[in-house]
Amino acid sequence: MTSISETNSLPKTKKPSDSAFKQQRLPAWQPILTAGTVLPTFFVIGIAFIPVGVGLLYFSDQVKEYIIDYTDCNSTNYERTRGVPFKCADVIAVNRSEPCFCQINFTLPFDFIGKIYMYYGLTNFYQNHRRYVKSRDDNQLLGKLSDVVSGDCAPFAYDSENRPIAPCGAIANSLFSDELTLFSVKHNTSVPLLKTGIAWPSDKNIKFRNPEGDLREAFKDFAKPKNWNKYIYELDEENESNNGFQNEDLIVWMRTAALPNFRKLYRRVDHTANGFTEGLVKGDYWLNVTYSYPVSAFYGRKKMILSTTSLLGGKNPFLGIAYIVVGCVCLLLGITLLIIHIKCSKSVTEMINVSPTTPYQE
Q: Quick check: bond before 31 cis, omega within 30?
């Protein structure tokens, strides 16, 4: 009988256990690629992908868009110098706290029928930078306010008086702040725009929550982000329920973009108002901008986009083009391999008669 001391003195082994997984005895299936299996696969993919791509392109073409680049718009509230107007970009570069207003007249060349959405677009803005993406405090955004802010928010965690910032981080600090409105010359009234219903329901109901009680009281010990002109409880003066961490403009901005050129939903046209029930009719409009968001430092551009939607969402021709290209490539490969197979393959009789002594022939 082996004693405990003898058992402990036995040499340890690194040999894996005798199991089917560790000894690599699990059954496996290895496909045998033959012309009879590969060629039909290429043809099926090609025949299936091309119609899908055509359909995607069709629905994408049904979406109507109108884009205005207002980066270099001229100020309407600053006097000209020697007949040369001031650009709002130059005005806010000197003093960002001073409001600058500009107006752009444009004409819709055709009717926009259906639901109309307004987007703002930015170029050369890298929201996908690793440190930028991490620069937020998710517990704070859930309404769990604390004097201790996540270290990921630095250097946008505390103000100069060492008060915690709400919301903290680089993402919130760079919140898009331009105000865009539309005026219809034909109807002689402003186009009614809705500030709600622009964020993902999952974001507003799960990822972003307000602290309990009065917002002004809850945030009294917190500072606003450095680049903000308003406190978080003042973001929407017309709708108190759209303030705090559940402000939909903030929620949309906090969902970072994957590419440096992107657009984000800004407003929805209210189709219950008289004159706009069917959409936007063609004609003259004014785009009024309260210009406060600087983009010159990173050589960016700012755009306003009016867009309709289709069954598949917004305008996206890339997906349809990708399907068509992949389908055509598969068909081309299938045809090429089929020709090679017909010309160069050996018959069954020839394959049966092949032996180790059969000479090789090209």
A: no
Angstrom distance (rounded) from CA 293 to CA 174: 9
Cα→Cα distances 301→227, 295, 304, Å? 19, 6, 10
Q: Rounded to whole angstroms, what are the CA distances from 318 to 56, 59, 260? A: 9, 12, 17
Distances in whole angstroms, Cα of residue 121 to Cα of each of 23, 67, 176: 57, 9, 10
- What are the mean pLDDT values of the chain's consecutive 10-residue runs (362 residues total)? 54 79 83 84 95 94 94 86 79 86 94 94 96 95 88 92 93 96 94 94 92 91 92 89 93 96 96 92 95 94 94 88 96 93 70 60 54
| Distance, C-alpha 67 to centroid of its chain | 18
**How far apart (Å, rounded) are the C-alpha atoms in residues 141 and 137?**
6
Q: With beta carbons less than 8 A apart as the criterion, state whether 193 and 118 touch.
A: yes
* pTM for this model (two decimals): 0.81
